[in-house]
Amino acid sequence: MSKDEQRNPKAGDLLISEPFLQDENFVRSVVLLCEHSEEGSFGLIINKQSILKLGELVEELAFLDKAVFVGGPVEQNTLHFIYVGEKVLDGSLSLGDNIWWGGDYESLVEKLKLGLLDHDSVRFFLGYSGWGAEQLDDELSDETWIICREILNEQTFNLTPEQLWKSLLKNMGGEFKVIANYPLDPRLN
């Protein structure tokens, strides 16, 4: 990917944190970029699982024994979701090859209860990652993030949170394959 492409993110891209990022919210994180415009950017960290279960947070989804992910440090009192597969909810926005963000929440609950939507195809997030106007562009210029254009698919979606950061970098090859093996603390190398 050219340097120019590295600085032009779009919805559906994955943002991979550089290996030594010190912000505890984003250490070794992978963010699914859902929106990017002149006004700002919105994304969900897809590899940071919380200790909370969905049923503890949302009574109507108590039948799901499902971990909730930390979408980011912004508005952690909000619930967001993505799902993989065919579009089954009105209002869902496409983020690429059969990856969907949001949609009609009541319909989601109903489809999950009736078994019309596979529980494993949906991921829930508390909060989100947000950037103001040009903030993400500045962070990309500072090489805080690596843009990954690999399509998030069911195989990638099902990797454990611990595997995802390293696996994506390895799949990108070249210098990124080397970065994937960097230690958390370079002093320990």
Automatic annotation (TrEMBL):
<comment type="similarity">
    <text>Belongs to the UPF0301 (AlgH) family.</text>
</comment>
<protein>
    <submittedName>
        <fullName>Putative transcriptional regulator</fullName>
    </submittedName>
</protein>
<dbReference type="Pfam" id="PF02622">
    <property type="entry name" value="DUF179"/>
</dbReference>
<dbReference type="InterPro" id="IPR003774">
    <property type="entry name" value="AlgH-like"/>
</dbReference>
<dbReference type="GO" id="GO:0005829">
    <property type="term" value="C:cytosol"/>
</dbReference>
